[in-house]
Amino acid sequence: MQTALLEPRPDKRSVSLREAPRGVVRPSVQAATSVELRVVTYNIWCGRRWAKCLSALRKIDADVICLQEVVPDDAPRARGLPTASRIAADLGLRSRFEALWRRLAVPVGNMTLVRGRIGEPRVLHVGTSEPYGLVTRVEVGGVEFILVNVHLAPLVGPPAISFLPSEVLRLREALHLDRTLRTIRGPVVVAGDFNSFRGAPAYAASTRRLRDVRRMRPGRHLATRPTYGLPFVIDHVLVSAEIGALDYAVHAGDGSDHRLVSTRLRIPRP
Predict the structure, then answer these.
(1) Where in 44-162 does DSSP place strands (E)?
(2) Residue 188 contacts by C-beta under 8 Å, 6 or more apart in sequence?
(3) CATH number of the domain that 174 lies in?
(4) Which of 48, 146, 183, 261 gives a 20 to 30 Å CA spacing to 55?
(5) Residue 6 lies in a domain
(6) 112 pairs with which residues across the strands?
(7) Domain range for residue 201?
(8) Is there a domain that residue 114 lies in?
(9) What pLDDT, in 10s, does the model give residues 179-231?
């Protein structure tokens, strides 16, 4: 069930893509000073329950979708799981996909989908470690920005014994992400599965120059991964200073071991 979203006050200086038919941007967007768009991040758990994941994504009808743990088309042990090409066809958006690491002997990666233009992805990795994300330049509704889809190093085993050793790896990746963002000018959106929460070192490094949308829209929000009976918040949407957040929600459901996170952002035109 979708949680209630906060409705912003009308603003004549901006225009929402939801006002236009699917795939069509009204001319008024060109004269606006900002564009509103819906952004989603969702770890789909290799698509084990893809029908439920797909239903949730279609209900939200986002303009930008960042998926994690997507199985590539050539995966040798997919066992009937939905692969990248099927997911792209089901959602009907332009997409980029790269395999990054392995989960239970199955290769998985990140997929970025947009209702607009999307450039070739750059794979992010530190030294010889496994890649942890994709960075692409996208254009949605006439506004360009940098979109980073991340999946930082996962926990292996119960959190009590696996968090600290794996957090060292995530901190290394988060510091690399921070160095990468120093070279980027203009609006930036970073979304994905960080496997790190507020107060932890990797989260702190990730938010050095970015703002957490969850904190920008305070309220009673669900945890993003209620695993082992603990209310983890490890899936985040981070934005650069010039981007505004109009709402934020974590959606309950049983399509994955993570919950879908959505937000409506206001991105200024150059």
Answers:
(1) 64-70, 94-103, 106-114, 117-118, 122-124, 133-140, 143-151
(2) 145, 146, 147, 148, 181, 210, 239, 240, 243
(3) 3.60.10.10
(4) 146
(5) no
(6) 66, 96
(7) 33-268
(8) yes
(9) 999 999 999 999 999 999 999 999 999 999 999 999 999 999 999 997 666 78
